[in-house]
Automatic annotation (TrEMBL):
Chain segments annotated as coiled-coil in the UniProt record: none
InterPro entries: Transp_IS110-like_N (IPR002525)
GO molecular function, one term: DNA binding
Organism, scientific name: Shigella flexneri K-227
Organism lineage string: Bacteria, Pseudomonadati, Pseudomonadota, Gammaproteobacteria, Enterobacterales
Name of the protein: Putative transposase
One Pfam family this sequence matches: DEDD_Tnp_IS110
């Protein structure tokens, strides 16, 4: 099985630590600069606004 990856075109990487009461999101660019680092409430609308 061959897997195709478009990794080279990715400019921002996002990680989300999901918790029961709060979440934490971090976004970094290809050089490792932190673009976003914030605790977020466990609220669907606020999380959707983050990724849209």
């Amino acid at each position: 099985m061959t897997e195709s990856s478009d990794y080279e075109s990715v400019q921002v990487f996002i990680g989300v630590d999901v918790g029961k009461d709060t979440h934490h999101a971090v976004a970094i660019n290809r050089s490792g600069k932190r673009l976003f680092d914030k605790a977020l409430p466990n609220d669907e609308n606020k999380l959707r606004s983050l990724i849209s």
